[in-house]
User: What shape does this take?
Amino acid sequence: MSSGAVRWPTKEVSGTMKKNLITRRSYLVRRESRIHIFTKPGSKSVADVPSKYHDILHTVSFQYEVYKHVLQIIQEHTELETEDVVERLFLHMKYLDDVRQEFLGETRNQKDASSSPTLEYHMWLEYTQGAYDAVARKQLSEEYKVTYGKVKSGKVNVLEPVLRESYVRRCGNAKYDKCGANVAMGKDPIPRPEVARRWAADIINELKAIQGAKDADTMEKDRDADDKVVDSVGGLPGHEVGMVGGEDRNRPGTEQEEEEQQQEIDRRRVGQGMGKEK
Assistant: This one.
């Protein structure tokens, strides 16, 4: 068990871990106050869950399945450049799985299994930020004066009903409702959620638009290159290869800088659906 809050992954998820994450899932049985966590096919862990954590663990279980289904849909589109989106989805799944596993460790290793600082800190991030990275944690600290240390020491309380109720209302009004408050989950995997279909469709459309823009830009650059060659062959004064009107349009670094800027813009556009929702 770690000595602090579960961190947002800072490096790519390994190939082996990706395979494991796809097979994992969980569901909560409220009447038994137990969570069932499948670590691999045919193998699962079961832990008692205080009633105060029922809602958040159900949400974690549902969100995990949403990310998984979105991932599977996007991976079917091999004609698109999906690597960045796929990696980001795996990061979300890795983080949520780490939260589940840490919760299991806390409840098993504490004499008083009724408290999970890890889960409560995650609740603060989920309920107030809708994101889990370093930026979200900084905003949580600045806006609500909440840190993992304060959660662990019991100085802040995330279990006030108003926080959960406000969160559920925001989920209902959000473009993608990943709360799962009204979704039943059990021993069998849930059917593909509608929110996963809609979210994946929007991501795919965005990727297609980006790909189309890149293809158009490539065609334009090819036409420019052809024009330069024609001018050079024609022997026009001052129009050598790589020169147009006497101005060097291919100075070292220019195209690379533009490509890096475009890649950053593309990542931000595609990632809009995976960030903070309010």
Q: What stands out?
A: The radius of gyration is 24 Å.
